[in-house]
Structure formats: structure tokens, C-alpha cells
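Hi F.,

I've been meaning to write this up properly since the lab meeting, where we talked about keeping a consistent format for the predictions we share between groups. The idea is simple: the sequence comes first, exactly as it goes in, then the C-alpha cells exactly as they come out, then a line or two of notes. No screenshots and no reformatting. I'm using this chain as the first example so we have something concrete to point to.
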Amino acid sequence: MNAEEQLVSIEVLVKYRSGAYDTQTVQGKRASSTASATSAAQRLGRKLWGYEPEVQEVSVASLPTGVHLVRLMPQPAAAGSR
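Output, unedited:
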């Protein structure tokens, strides 16, 4: 991935099933977490960019139960927020 692509935030669907939050596939990579949808998204960001990005859960009323929309922003997370 080049530097220009890293400057764009992405939105990822995360589904809760069988006791874990699983992200959708992005650039051939997926991640999961048993803690939260945002944790799964951070792990995906680490696979994509090499560090844990800032994440923001987006509230969307029309999503089915157990599905979360999380925005990954390509700047490193602040120390202590991991």
C-alpha cells in the first residue's frame, strides 16, 4: 500500500457471531476479537497499515442486530488507548 492510500479512512462492517466480532475482508485481510467490534477493527488496521489506527463506531439504525459499522482512520492510536 502506498502513502496516498494510507491517508484515506475506510469503513468496515463487523459482525458478532459465535462469541466473536469478525470484520469483513479488506484487501484480502480479516480480523476478529472477542472483546468488541472496535477491537476487531483495530486489529484489521494493524494488518493493513502496520499500526493500530484510531477507530470510531458509526451509529446506523438500519443495520441488523449484531452488525456494527466501524470507521478506521489512518493515524496511529494515541499511546495508552490500546
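Notes:
The CA atoms of residues 21 and 33 lie 5 Å apart.
The longest strand covers residues 67-76.

If this format works for you, I'll send the rest the same way.

G.
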